[in-house]
Amino acid sequence: MTKRPRAPRRRPPTGSETAAFRLAFETETGAILRRRVGWYATIILCLTLLSNIPIILGAILGQASGTLAAFAGLVSGNKIGYAALTGIWVSVYAGVLIAVFGRKLQSRKTVWASLLLITADGVYFVIARAGDLTDFAGIPMFALSHFIASIVFPWSPRQAVYPAAIVLGLSALSNFLIEGGLDSPGSTAIFVAISPLWVVPGTLTCWVRHSRRLEKFGFQFLQQRYGRLRQELVSARAIHESVFPRPRSTGDLRLMYRYLPATQIGGDYLFAYGERHGEGERMSVVLLDVTGHGIAAALSVNRLHGEIELMFAAEPDISPGDVMRRLNRYVNLTLAKHSVFVTGLAMRADSTRGVIEHASGGHPPAFVRGVDGTLSELEPTAPMLGAVPDRDFDPGETSQRFAPGDSIIAYTDGVTEARSIEGQCLRTAGLRALVGLHHAPVTPGDWPDEVLRAVERHLAGVPADDDMLVVELYRPLRSPAAVEREAERRPEPVAG
User: Are 304 and 288 in contact (CB under 8 A)?
Assistant: First the structure.
C-alpha cells in the first residue's frame, strides 16, 4: 500500500522578504501583547486586591477598635515580610500596566514586559517559600502562572524559557543556601534537577501555538504580498500600455493592433508616428520584441520607448534603416551585457509615393496582403538587435509598392510559437496559410482580431506562454467622394 504524499506545509517567506516578514510578525505580536498584557495585569491585580481585602479590613477594624493586640498580631512576624513582598510585586504589575496603557512600549519592549510579569510571579513565589510567608508559594505555583501565561501571551518557545530559567536558577540557590539544602545535598540536587519539568507544559504550549501562528501569519503575509503585487502589476500594465499608440481608423494610412501579454505586463512594444507628407500621409511604425516576458522585459521596453521617442522627436523623417541601426547600437551597449536582446521591425509607409520601406532586425517576417489577395513577405534584413556591434550592423533597408487596399500584418513570435495541447507550434507557415488562403472576406483593420482568434483555436484552451502582439498597417479603398471629404480634414496625429 503506497503512502499518500503529505501536502507541503506553508512556511514563512525567506530571502529578501525575511526582514519584512519579521517586522510584520513582531508588529502583530506587539499589538496582541499590548492588549493581553493590559487585561492580564488588570485581572491579576484585581484578584490580588480581593484576596487581601480581609487583611486590609482587619487592619482598619483593629485600629478603629483601638485593640492594640489585634493590630500587633496582624502585622507582626511574617505578616510584615508578606506585606512588603506583595507591595513590591504589585508595584511591578502596576508599573507594567501604566506603561502599557500609556502606550510607552514598543513591540519588542511589550514582549519583555510580559516576561517581566511572569518572572516577578516566580521571584515572588520563591521568596515567599523561602521566608515561609504564605502557603501559596514555590515552584508549583510558578508553573501554574507560567502555564496560564503561555496560553494567554503569544510567546515563542525561547521566550517562554527566559522567565523559567531565571526563576528556576533562583529557586536552586534558595534551596541550597537558605532552605537547608546543604544539610541534605543529594535530595536537594534531585529536586533541583527535576524542577524544570514543572515548566515543560507551558513551554510545549508555546511551541505549538507559536508554530501554528507563525504558519498562519506566513500564509496571510504571502497573500497580502501577492495581492499588493497584483495591484502593482495592474498599475504597471496601465503605464506600460499607455506608451502604445492609439489605433487609427481614419486617413490614408490606418493602424490597428491587439496586444495580449502572457502575464500582467510583457516585452512587446509598438510605436507609431504619423504626419502629413505632400498630398498624402507618411507613417512610421516600429515593432519590438524583447527577449523574455514579464516585469524584466517590460522594464527594457520602457527604456527602448524613451530612446525611440527621443529619436523621432529629433528626426521625424528618420528612415527605418537608421531606426534599426540606432536601436542596435543602444541595445548592444546597454542591454546586451545583461543578456537582453531585441527583435525589431521598422516600417515607413508613404501614401503619396505608394511605397513601404522596411528594415528588420531578426524579427519574424511580416505579410503584405494585396487588395487582389496576393501575398508577399517583409523578410528580416539584419541580425537581432544587440547581437553585433554598431560597426558590423547593416540594416539592409528595402522598399516595395504599397497600394490602396493593401494590408501589412506584422506580429511578434508569441503568435507563431503558440503551442497546442499536442505541443505543436503554429509557426510562420501556419500563419502564412491563414493570411494568404483565408476564404472568408476580412475587413481591413480586422486582421489582428482574426489572427488572435486563429491562435486561440490552435491553443484549444492551453494558456499562452509568451506575449502576443498583432499589428495591421493598411491603406483603405475609398470612393472619390470620400477622398474629397477627407482631404479637407487634418488626420489625427499618431505618436507613441
Answer: yes
- Gap between the Cα atoms of 427 and 366, Å rounded: 13
Which CA distances in Å does 79 have to 76, 84, 92, 209?
Answer: 6, 9, 20, 40
Q: Which three cell numbers stand for residue 430?
A: 501556419
> Are 142 and 127 in contact, with CB atoms under 8 Å apart?
no
Q: Distance between CA 428 and CA 407 in Å, rounded?
A: 17
Render pLDDT for 51-107 as a digit per residue (tens, 0 to 9): 666 665 655 555 444 443 433 343 334 567 777 888 888 888 888 888 887 776 777
Read off the C-alpha cell for 488: 479637407
pLDDT given for residue 316 in this prediction: 92
Radius of gyration of the chain (CA): 40
Cell numbers at residue 28, please?
502583530
pTM above 0.85, yes or no: no
* Distance separating alpha carbons of residues 224 and 305, to the nearest angstrom: 32
Mean pLDDT in residue range 42-50:
82
Give φ, ψ of 378 to 5 degrees: -100, 95
- Are 206 and 156 in contact by the 8 Å Cβ rule? The answer is yes
| Per-residue cell: 168 | 528556576
- Give the integer Cα–Cα distance in Å for 191 and 234: 65
CA 161/CA 464 separation, integer angstroms: 54
Q: Give the Cα separation of 339 and 346 in Å (integer).
A: 22
The Cα-based distances of 449 to 28, 112, 409 in angstroms read 50, 65, 11
pLDDT of residue 372: 83
Q: How far apart are CA 361 and CA 324, in angstroms?
A: 7
Asked whether the predicted pLDDT for residue 11 surpasses 60, the reply is no
Q: Quote the strand ranges of 303-397, DSSP E.
A: 342-350, 355-361, 366-369, 375-378
